[in-house]
Amino acid sequence: MNFKTVTLAASAFAFAALGACSESEQEAQEDLTEQAYESQEDLLEEQADLAEAQGDEVTEEALDAEADAMGEMGDQAEDAVDEAAE
Predict the structure, then answer these.
(1) Which one of 16, 66, 68, 79 has the fewest beta carbons within 10 angstroms of its own beta carbon?
(2) Could you read off the pLDDT tens digit of each residue along the chain, which spans 86 residues?
């Protein structure tokens, strides 16, 4: 599953959740952003776990680093949404 697919799935979930509750538009955007990056981060972590189980330490470390970077980008994107709303 690639990032685009994860993002689309997270978008669908976020918009469904928005319809079910009375969140503000900003909160919904923050949730969407956070979920998209967290989904990608989780996927990379699972791939790293698989690489570790297969004994591929180099790939595991690379995927772990990529997952960490994805988490950081998610935090930055969420902050950007906050700043844009202010």
Answers:
(1) 16
(2) 566 666 656 666 666 665 555 568 888 888 888 888 999 999 999 999 999 999 999 999 999 999 999 989 888 887 887 777 76
